[in-house]
Write a structure and sequence with these properties.
Pfam families: ABC_membrane (PF00664), ABC_tran (PF00005). With 592 residues, this protein is of the alpha/beta class. It is 63% helix and 10% strand. Strand 7 (507-511), helix 17 (519-533) and strand 8 (537-541) form a beta-alpha-beta unit. The chain is elongated, with a radius of gyration of 35 Å. It starts with a helix and ends in a 6-residue tail after the last helix.
């Protein structure tokens, strides 16, 4: 993701708002309605001073029917009210619709990203961008742009009317506008930088809050409430300090704009009063000039505030644009290959695979791995922590691409397959079971969304999850809480196993699948898994060696290398690393 300086130096600030226009232009009818209402409301606003001119010159001074001119003025007010209401409706609708589309587009692109992206970009910061930044974008599209356009139309139309009323006074007033613009542009550059910095500090606040709230049990268990409160307070204060600088500068912009504009108007009004005294202007004309001048001054003054909001929106748009346009590292090939069918499971081959995690570029996770897993074979991968066991599964699912070597499924290199086609061949039970804040039914059928309730219950029964699921208040419709907070660790793990069972894929990936189960539940699940493994290719990652004794082949990894392989009896007889690990776990109690 680009840093702040590269963004501000390579793209013009307001150029980032072009992204918003790409979404807004999908709704030309709403844009046309908003523009028509905006023009009508601005025209009605400018017609009010002319109405007062007619009331004064034709009604009070001319001795005519004064009621007629007040009716004219009232009609203008009614038109203004209706047009303003329509403008508000159309632009507010556009703001909400554009933000909804941007959120969906951003989320869709994030779902295409490889895990490396989320290692380099904190998910909590991403969430902040999709909430706080989109709120700013909504304000810009649904209000700021409309207000800025209205003020611009009012300012330009007002100047035209001022020239029609009193060309000399209008020309003098116009001379002060370039001075105002030069000052505002100079201040706006600093506002742009502070606006982006303010958004970054806001993301830091959201990230800090999410991190602590997600680890509340640990915080309280170790008595770190005060320290975390102080750390969060410091983050908030840094955000406030940046926001204070931005507010101070925007206040200065507003003060300068109003002082220069209204100062110029005051001087021009002074000259106008002299012309009225000399009979060169009528009373109605000077009244209309004063009112229009006030509208023009207010419009230019409001433009300075809108400019600051637009710059802030441009900063938010650039941050969202980074998420929306980030190219996925793992993407489908231009020409995908079909997978040759196999009778039993699938064949997975690792050929001289070498890999470094992006966060540990100096430490290889795998060194020249050669491994051929045959269709229907159950292969267990064991070894010390950090040996590279889970990395094999990460590469098999193509969450990462190896630095060297190749991985093939049924003889086809993984980069030649669409990631979705590859992953459809696999069902995984991760070490840390993931439970979504949804119903039990939706969690269970996550791998096979069209599964019937009968199929769901069959999978739950096989995973030894049926009993506790039936005991839930609403059964499969029960809400499981954030991260499965209403379940125990073992229950969460059994739901993850049932989910994989329901997927019914040719390759089964078990990463410490029974680590959170008690002895009785583990035995029942192992029996279910034994049935499931029949006719499937299975990779079992395990620390507890008792769970892999029946595997067709056991691969022993150490420091990213295969140091031993064979069945349980052969490895025990060899008296190598596997045998030493077995003795550590069972105190020499493991029998052949």
């Amino acid at each position: 993701m680009a840093d702040d300086s590269s963004i501000s130096n390579t793209r013009p600030a307001l150029g980032n708002l072009a992204m918003l226009w790409r979404f807004a232009r999908r709704y030309p009818g709403r844009i046309a309605g908003a523009l028509i209402a905006l023009i009508v409301s601005s025209a009605a606003t400018l017609a009010i001073p002319n109405g007062f001119r007619l009331v004064i010159d034709k009604g009070f001074m001319g001795g005519g029917d004064i009621g007629r001119w007040f009716e004219y003025l009232l009609m203008i007010v009614i038109v203004l009210a209706l047009a303003s209401a329509l403008r508000f409706y159309f632009v507010s609708w556009l703001g909400e619709r554009v933000v909804a589309d941007i959120r969906c587009a951003t989320q869709a692109n994030l779902l295409r990203q490889a895990p490396r992206f989320f290692e380099e970009n904190r998910p909590s910061e991403i969430a902040s961008r999709m909430t706080a930044d989109t709120a700013i974008v909504e304000q810009v599209v649904g209000s700021t742009v409309s207000v800025a356009l209205r003020n611009m139309v009012t300012a330009i139309g007002g100047l035209v009317y001022l020239f029609a009323l009193a060309p000399k006074l209008a020309a003098l007033l116009l001379l002060g506008i370039p001075v105002v613009l030069l000052v505002l542009i100079g201040l706006a550059r600093r506002v742009r930088t502070l606006s982006r910095a303010s958004q970054d500090r806001l993301a830091d606040i959201g990230s800090a809050a999410t991190e602590v709230l997600g680890a509340m049990k640990i915080v309280q268990a170790f008595g770190q409430e005060e320290r975390e409160a102080a750390r969060f307070r410091a983050t908030v204060e840094r955000g406030f300090a940046t926001a204070r600088q931005r507010i101070r500068l925007r206040a200065m912009m507003t003060a300068v704009a109003f002082a220069l504009i209204f100062g110029a108007i005051t001087g021009v009004m002074w000259l106008g009063a002299i012309d009225v005294a000399a009979g060169r202007l009528s009373g109605g004309s000077i009244a209309a000039f004063v009112l229009t001048g006030g509208l023009v001054a207010g419009a230019f003054g409001s433009l300075s505030e809108s400019w600051g909001d637009l710059l802030r929106g441009a900063g938010a748009a650039s941050r969202l644009g980074e998420l929306m346009t980030a190219a996925p590292e793992i993407s489908p090939p231009a020409r995908t290959h079909m997978l040759p069918p196999m009778e039993r499971g699938a064949r997975l081959t690792f050929d001289q695979v070498r890999f470094h995690y992006p966060t540990r570029p100096d430490q290889a996770a795998l060194h020249g791995i050669d491994l051929d897993i045959h269709p229907g074979e159950t292969v267990a991968v064991v070894g010390p922590s950090g040996a590279g066991k889970s990395t094999l599964i990460q590469l098999a699912l193509r969450f990462y691409d190896p630095d060297a070597g190749a991985i093939r499924l049924n003889g086809v290199a993984l980069p030649d397959l669409a990631p979705a086609d590859l992953r459809a061949m696999m069902a995984m039970v991760p070490q840390d079971s993931v439970i979504f804040a949804a119903s039990a039914r939706d969690n269970l059928r996550y791998g096979r969304w069209d599964a019937t309730d009968a199929q769901i219950w069959d999978a739950a029964r096989a995973a030894n999850a049926e009993m506790f699921l039936r005991d839930l208040p609403q059964g499969l419709d029960s809400f499981l809480g954030e991260g499965g907070a209403r379940l125990s660790g073992g229950q969460r793990q059994r739901i993850a196993i049932a989910r994989a069972l329901l997927r019914d894929a040719p390759i089964l990936l078990l990463d410490e699948a029974t680590s959170a189960l008690d002895a009785e539940s583990e035995r029942l699940v192992q029996d279910a898994l034994a049935t499931l493994m029949q006719g499937r290719t299975t990779i079992v990652i395990a620390h507890r060696l008792a769970t892999v004794r029946s595997a067709d082949r056991i691969i022993v990894l150490d420091e990213g290398r295969i140091v031993e392989q064979g069945n349980h009896a052969a490895l025990i007889a060899r008296d190598g690393l596997y045998a030493r690990l077995a003795r550590l776990q069972f105190q020499d109690g493991m029998a052949d």
